[in-house]
From TrEMBL:
The organism's place on the tree of life at top rank: Bacteria
Stored PANTHER family: SERINE--TRNA LIGASE, SERYL-TRNA SYNTHETASE
Binding site for ATP: R262, Q263, E264, E351, T352, H353, S354
Domain remark in the UniProt entry: Consists of two distinct domains, a catalytic core and a N-terminal extension that is involved in tRNA binding.
Pfam families: Seryl_tRNA_N, tRNA-synt_2b
The organism of origin for this protein: Dictyobacter formicarum
One GO MF term attached to the UniProt entry: ligase activity
NCBIfam families per the UniProt record, alphabetical: serS
Gene: serS_1
Family indicated by similarity: Belongs to the class-II aminoacyl-tRNA synthetase family. Type-1 seryl-tRNA synthetase subfamily.
Protein name listed in UniProt: Serine--tRNA ligase
Keywords: Aminoacyl-tRNA synthetase, ATP-binding, Coiled coil, Cytoplasm, Ligase, Nucleotide-binding, Protein biosynthesis
Cellular localisation: Cytoplasm
Subunit-structure text: Homodimer. The tRNA molecule binds across the dimer.
Length: 426
């Protein structure tokens, strides 16, 4: 959410941001509604002030035993009370409508973000590692998993329907190793490990920006105000709702683990082979809450990216980083980098991480503030990035490290989390 005062004084900046983000918000309609609210608020406040004067006048008239004046003033007070009683529901209705429109206003993208309509216009700006050259017939991730009995999709589909899977044997151990590897490394970087709820209330989804627009991607628990999170980002954003943090506490740095659930509405027929695009997966999430300062946000944006790059480099996976364009970054972002790992079987890079900074757009939605060194209370800035999301990361991992004999070499950095094991399938 943007500051209403900012929208009032910069309507064209907000309209341009909406255009760049393919966001259809009608800023003029919002401002017209806002003017109605302000006018009606003023009327009601005037009426209340008049009521106060009248009650003083009534007391004065009573003191002076001026019954006629007192009765007239009481009658006038009654008329005012009826006016206020009639106007208040209308005012609340208009305030609610304005709030619902405010939730749809996008953040202002940083000028460094490429202008574009969709992911085809994201701009790669960094490459690391060489695509592996196999002198044997390399297998894709699903064939590798089948070969080593690492997955059971048929039985998962029996239990849970499409886009579900069972990880078996060393794949199950590998996923847990990856989660521990990420949690361990990030903890040693001073990020506080969290294991957060995967069920959260509506307000948390409004908070991170998933609601209202992305409701169709979220599983709802029947007859409860509870929904399954698609990312720990939702739960962590909701944790601090309505709090005022001490400036000296910032930045708060979290590495949060949670199972993640996504409807993947609108992706019918896309990435149906194996475990690339599924309804449930596990993710280790980096999350920062920092002071309201652009340079500070940009610093942490780069740090979160670097943390993920270090993890991927330790997994010895070739990747590239793309600067996400305005049409693909979504409403809440000021800037966004995706990391895409090379997938040998597809001979292309596929997204495995997504890094964003949002200034105070989420903080305003959960009313999360801090008191700065001058005692001024401000909304914080928030940022997030993937540390590891599995099983998607298993795809480049298994394919890149497969050997001629079909076994898979476990990267050095993961072995301590796999009991020292060096290979899968040997
Ligand atoms: N349906 C899915 N199946 C498997 N992995 C997924 C799915 N959706 C997302 N992921 C993984 O989770 C990562 C982060 O998802 S994201 O929506 O891009 N971004 C976030 O959730 C942010 N909170 C940063 O993690 C993706 O890069 C991808 O690796």
């Amino acid at each position: 959410m943007l500051d209403l005062a900012f929208i009032r004084s910069n309507p064209d900046v907000v309209k341009e941001a909406a255009r760049l983000k393919n966001n259809s918000i009608d800023v003029d309609a919002l401002l017209a509604l806002d003017q109605q609210v302000v006018a009606l608020q003023h009327e009601v406040e005037e009426a209340r002030a008049k009521q106060n004067q009248l009650s003083k006048g009534i007391q004065q008239a009573a003191k002076e035993k001026n019954t006629e004046l007192r009765n007239n003033l009481i009658a006038e007070g009654k008329k005012l009370a009826e006016f206020i009683k009639a106007k208040e529901p209308e005012l609340h209705q208009l305030i609610e409508e304005r709030y619902n429109l405010l939730l749809l206003v996008p953040n202002i993208p940083d000028p460094s973000a490429p202008v574009g309509k969709d992911d085809s216009e994201n701009v790669p700006f960094k490459y690391w590692g060489e695509a592996p050259k196999f002198d044997f017939q390399a297998l894709d991730h699903y064939d590798l998993m089948l070969k080593h009995n690492l997955v059971d999709i048929e039985r998962a589909v029996k239990v849970a329907g499409s886009r579900s899977y069972v990880l078996r044997g060393d794949a199950a151990r590998l996923e847990l190793a990856l989660i521990n590897f990420a949690m361990d490394k990030m903890s040693r970087k001073g990020f506080t490990p969290l294991i957060v709820p995967s069920m959260a209330r509506d307000f948390a989804f409004v908070g991170n920006g998933q609601f209202p627009k992305g409701r169709d991607q979220v599983y709802e628990l029947k007859d409860q105000d509870l929904f399954l999170v698609g990312t720990a980002e939702v739960s962590i954003t909701g944790m601090y709702k309505d709090e005022i943090l001490k400036g000296e506490e910032l930045p708060l740095k979290f590495v949060g683990y949670s199972p993640c659930f996504r409807q993947e509405a609108g992706t019918y027929g896309k990435d149906t082979r194996g475990v690339f695009r599924i309804h449930q997966f596990n993710k280790v999430e980096q999350y920062i809450i920092c002071k309201a300062d652009h340079e500070e946000s940009v610093f942490w944006f780069e740090q979160l990216l670097q943390n993920a790059e270090e993890l991927i480099q330790e997994l010895e996976l070739p990747y590239r980083v793309v600067n996400v364009c305005t049409g693909d970054m979504g409403d809440g972002k000021v800037g966004m980098y995706d990391i895409e790992c090379w997938v040998p079987s597809e001979k292309r890079y596929r997204e495995t991480h997504s890094c964003s900074y949002l200034h105070d757009w989420q903080a305003r939605r959960v009313n999360l503030r801090y008191r700065d060194e001058e005692g001024k209370v401000k909304f914080v800035h928030t940022l997030n990035n993937t540390a590891i999301a599995s099983p998607r990361i298993l795809i480049p991992l298994l394919e890149t490290h497969q050997q001629a004999d079909g076994s898979i070499l476990i990267p050095e950095a993961l072995r301590p989390f796999m009991g020292g094991q060096k290979f899968i399938g040997r």
